[in-house]
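sorry for the late reply, my laptop died twice this morning and i had to redo everyting from scratch. anyway the thing you sent over, i finally got around to it. pasting the sequence first so we're on the same page, its 207 residues, then the predicted structure underneath. double check i copied it right bc i was rushing
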Amino acid sequence: LNEAIEALSINKEDMEAYYGMLTASDSVYQSAINILTKKSFEDKDNHNHWEYFLGLLYIRHKDYKNAIKTLQPLVDDNTEIKDMALYWMTDCYEEIENMPKVIELCNQALAAEPENAEYLSKRATAKFYTHDLEGAKADYEATMKADTDYGFFCYYRLGWIEEIMGNYDLALEHFDKSIALNEDDPYTHMMKGCLLKDHMNKPEEAK
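ok and here's the structure:
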């Protein structure tokens, strides 16, 4: 742990040291917190980076409340690592199922990068779970437009949304498009089968 933190003191972008620190913290979690907190206090020139590392340490150990508390100032103060802190904060709020906050943070990120597929996808999913189905549809479609690699997931979600809304033919179309992009995914096949059996009266096709 000390070696990894010392390496980060020399180079904040040393990913090997970063992952080494996180791995080492698994057995000495409180010691890692204490060391990073001390570094943050003493190393004023790199205070923001130490706070960022501390936030990620909290996330690794599923302490999302303290992670948010640590990362929030890095966003509010418009620091040089604001974007990275914002990204991890959206993950924290997803984990604690605070979807309105996820939407708020995604809106903040998308104001600067309106075609960022990752944030569009995150916002779409948060809207889905807050029952804003039309908003979710629009964001999933925008996600695919921004990055076609998201097509499999977005078509799956669009199929689910259309099924909820009672648009069964359109739901089936979306599930088929998702399967065409990733035919090995069991969940899309399951959703399609349930749709055919439960809503479209096609039990033979559901098999």
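The two ends are 53 Å apart (CA to CA).
thats about all i looked at so far, will dig more tmrw
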